[in-house]
Amino acid sequence: MKKNKSKNTFEEKESPSIKFVRGLNNIVDYIVLLIFLLFIIYGSYAMWDNKQVIFEASSDKYTAYKPSSESDDNSSFDELKKLNKEVIAWLDVYGTKIDYPITHTSNNSKYLSINAKKEPSLAGSLYLDYRNNRKFKDFNNIIYGHHMDGDAMFGNIDLFNDKEFFDNHKYGNIYFNEKGHGLEFFAFFEVDAYNYKLYNPNVKGKNEITQYLSYLNSIAKYSRNINIKATDQIVLLSTCENSSTNGRQILAAKVSDKEFENPFIENIENENKERVNQQSLIIKILLFLLLIILIILLLWLLLKRRKKEKEVVEE
User: Fold this and answer.
1) Other beta carbons within 10 Å of 44
2) pTM exceeding the 0.70 threshold for the entire prediction
3) 117 burial via Cβ count (<10 Å: 0-12, 13-18, 19+)
4) Nearest-CA neighbor of 101 among 121, 119, 81?
5) Which residues, 6 or more positions from 139, have their beta carbon under 8 angstroms from its beta carbon?
6) Per-residue b/e over 196-206, b at no fewer than 16 CB within 10 Å?
7) Are 104 and 86 spatial neighbours (Cβ–Cβ below 8 Å)?
8) Dist CA 92 CA 155 (whole Å)
9) Which residues are paired to 238 by β-bridges?
10) R_g of the chain, CA atoms, integer Å
11) Crossing angle of the two packed helices 16-57 and 265-314, in degrees rounded to 10
């Protein structure tokens, strides 16, 4: 009977205003918890979405389509060209993650936001300047690509801004017209996007080519002499340089009929395995942290409610 009396007394003491305040506090607690959860969910989604963008731009997505001059069966590359008839070539810069198909169309804007599979993409695609011949018949062939995080697209061009890296990474490969061609890198530039003298794909004739090569040599940050003739071809790999609004970084190479071996092939395979392991570890850590945060929030909410109930009883 005493117990019931005490309970009744407590209920009598709890006025409507106290009930209202207690209910309001509970609502506030749930709102705070909901806001925390929304922040966690949004933060997790943002991180996941960023990873997805990087993954979608990763060269790993295109590995299955990569052609080889050592194989008679390049049906996988033919499949990619069936998906997109504007795919014309493949670029591989040894010792980097630059290993992508190249596209070509009637303008220099389409492939800023469309990938080589004709899908909408923030990473876009590597593409040959629309003024260039799609069969690579010009002397100066300009290839553009976004500077992406996660070493995607032309994100590794800035590695050549280090003299030691430039000196130790001399070769690559470009596949076009059903044949592989060696690339021998001879210069690295940091220039303005509106340097029309440099961004000129219509260099023709021995005199123009000689003057153009002389100009390249005069503005190069790093260079090496590889004896380029007027009858040769070159490619310029161009991407954004983030320290200035119109800044561009360019890696220049001579195109050769001779293909060069990739001395970094084992390193790339090991890096790919390590990257997969790192991504798996990051996901596990994020899930663990999310669980810890949720537990802490629930404990905080529980303790706060008990504290308020105790205060009401004491009153």
Assistant:
1) 14
2) yes
3) middle
4) 81
5) 203, 204, 209, 230, 232, 233, 234
6) eebbbbebeee
7) yes
8) 13
9) 144, 250
10) 30
11) 180
Using DSSP bridges, classify how beta strands 171-176 and 179-192 pair: parallel, antiparallel or unpaired.
antiparallel
Q: Are 255 and 171 in contact (CB under 8 A)?
A: no
The string of pLDDT tens digits covering residues 175-215 is 999 999 999 999 999 999 999 999 999 999 999 999 999 99
Encoded tokens for 166? 């430039």
Six token digits for residue 186? 């001879």
- How many other C-beta atoms can be found within 10 angstroms of the C-beta atom of residue 278? 10
Q: Say if residues 51 and 279 touch (Cβ distance below 8 Å).
A: yes
Distance CA 108, CA 126 (A): 11
Our measurement of the distance from residue 94's CA atom to the centroid of its chain's CA atoms, rounded to an integer in Å, reads 18
Top-confidence residue, 199 or 43: 199
CA 305 to CA 265: how far, in whole Å?
60
Rounded CA-CA distance 221/217 in Å is 9
Q: For residues 151 and 158, give the distance between their C-alpha atoms in angstroms, rounded to a whole number.
A: 10
Asked if residue 144 lies in contact with residue 157, where contact means CB atoms within 8 angstroms, the answer is no
CA distance 80 to 82: 5
- Residue 175 bridge partners (DSSP): 90, 180
Backbone angles phi, psi at 179, to 5 degrees: -150, 145
| Residue whose tokens read 């009153």 | 315
CB 251 within 8 A of CB 224: no
